[in-house]
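Quick one, T. Sequence first:
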Amino acid sequence: MTEGDGVETASLFPAEAFAVLSNETRVAIVETLAEESGLSFAELRKRVGVSDAGQFNYHLSKLQDRFVSKRDGEYHPQYAALRAVGAIRSGIYTSGSTTETKETDYDCPTCESLLTATYDRGKLFLECDEHEKVFQTMVPPTAASNRTIEALLSYANAEVQRDIEHTVDGNCHICTGPLSCSSPERPENLLQVVLSCENCWNYMHLPVAVTVVRHPAVVSLYHDHGIDVRSEPLLSLDFVRDPESASVLSEDPVRMRVTVELGEDTLQLTLDGELNVLETERE
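Structure tokens:
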């Protein structure tokens, strides 16, 4: 296929797509183009370091259309190539495993015992001796490199907040597929919903109160009190931990309310069954 001819690239099975990159030269090509797009054949071959032009052309042709495009005699990385290089540089597939454990200043939301943080093979989790894991997320090795547990927790909190924001917007943070939201339930203390991706395996059990942490009204309330709620650990926010902060107003249609109290201020947010904030009221 040549660019601009209106012909779609044929779909590949996942194994076929990964097989295209199962070669050292091809990986070097996409990494080189990710660093500098728009190289000629000769420039690209020189930077990759392949002396045999025929062999280089063979590997480059295997990448074309799916991972590399050619325009006006220059080669450019496709979106798939950039995502592949990002995954490689993150260390997800290549880094060795590291394990670190340390007691934190965060307390268990159930028993208030201090939580222990552990980073192990790409996973960061907080656990309590009595209630086991109370928080878990994935952190790529590159993000964990040269970070203390405290810094890693701060990074993870910001990432989780952003993931939740994407999820509440209806987009899977793993594959970008659409999400469906369950009816609210209270399996333990907190009112929760389950957001399930319709395209991949991902699903999230979310306390309803957590879904409004980055809503402008909540951010503004905390800002007025000198706090950037976006950098606060989720487990430290009183309204997230309070089982009384979220309630169901009606079931048909689903309407929920989250109450955020901070100092002498009270903010109430009314949500529908898709977690859209319909109304806010601040006192």
